[in-house]
Amino acid sequence: MCDITALTATPQIRAMLSEILIETVAHGGSVSFMHPLSPEAAHAFWDKALAAAAQDERVVLGAWDGEALVGTVTLLLDCPPNQPHRGEIAKLMTRPSHQGRGIARSLMRAAEALAVERARTLLVLDTATEGGASGLYEGLGFTRAGEIPGFALKPHGGLTGTILYWKRIGG
Fold first, then answer.
1. Domain segments of the chain: what residues?
2. Which residues contact 151 (CB under 8 A, 6 or more apart)?
3. What distance lies between CA 112 and its chain's CA centroid?
4. Could you point out which of 24, 58, 85, 141 has its C-alpha 20 to 30 Å from the C-alpha of 38?
């Protein structure tokens, strides 16, 4: 079982998050980036994400196996004024060496608990049609809203669709 904590902007945390992002993209994870992903691009992404977390616009959670960061998920909280009840799940990633151990499920449960603490009653997310985490999300009670074909490029090229999900929480 991994410890899950909210992450803050330190050089060490940024470096570990960047490693996970680069590794995920290299293994075909559809998380908005193309392969090969440069360390500079990964660092820039996490610098921006962690700065937004410091502004309470999101929470970046990390799963730890001892001293090693082995997974992450982001709860986006900066929604439009007419959607203060909503949160969005983004960038769920587990190191390939640690997949199949329940880390992603634990990260999702922690993100949902945080969303409830922040008075959110609806979570939304999307996942790639090919190689995404549909089974995980459906197992956690998310409802499939629909699919958009050809939504994004896969990290190694070619198009993939995306599946949209939602879940009512905390009420």
1. 3-121
2. 159, 160, 161, 162
3. 12
4. 58
Q: Can you read off the two tokens belonging to residue 139? A: 């197992």
Of 143, 87, 138, 92, the residue nearest 115 (C-alpha) = 87
Helix-strand-coil split of the chain, %, nearest 5: 35, 35, 35
Nearest to 147 by CA among 171, 123, 133, 129: 129
Instruction: Give CA–CA dist 13/61, Å, rounded.
Output: 11
Q: Residue 93: pLDDT above 80?
A: yes
- Furthest CA-CA distance within the chain: 43
Cα dihedral 115/59/148/44 (nearest 10): 170
DSSP conformational letter for 101:
S
Fold entry, domain 3-121: Aminopeptidase (3.40.630)
Its pTM stands at 0.97
Q: Give tens-digit pLDDT for 94-153.
A: 999 999 999 999 999 999 999 999 999 999 999 999 989 999 999 999 999 999 999 999
